[in-house]
C-alpha cells in the first residue's frame, strides 16, 4: 500500500476562519492517485486550532 508524507507551510493569517482545502490539495497533487485515504494534519503553532466542517452551506462559517 503506497503512502506519502509532506511538510507544508501555510501563509500566516490574522484571526478568523479560513478555508485551506485548496491550499492542501494544490500542494499535494499526488492525492489524485488515491481513491481512498487518510490525511493527518499536525499543527505546530500553539494558538492555532483546526475545525473540520461541512462547507456546503455558507452559514456554517458565519455561525462559528
From TrEMBL:
Pfam family, one: YjbQ
Gene3D superfamilies membership: YjbQ-like
Family classification: Belongs to the UPF0047 family.
The protein's name in its UniProt record: Uncharacterized protein
Organism: Tuber magnatum
Amino acid at each position: 500500500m503506497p503512502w506519502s508524507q509532506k511538510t507544508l507551510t501555510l501563509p500566516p493569517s490574522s484571526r478568523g476562519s479560513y478555508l485551506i482545502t485548496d491550499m492542501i490539495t494544490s500542494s499535494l497533487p499526488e492525492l489524485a492517485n488515491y481513491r481512498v485515504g487518510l490525511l493527518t494534519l499536525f499543527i505546530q503553532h500553539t494558538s492555532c486550532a483546526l475545525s473540520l466542517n461541512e462547507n456546503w452551506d455558507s452559514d456554517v462559517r458565519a455561525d462559528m
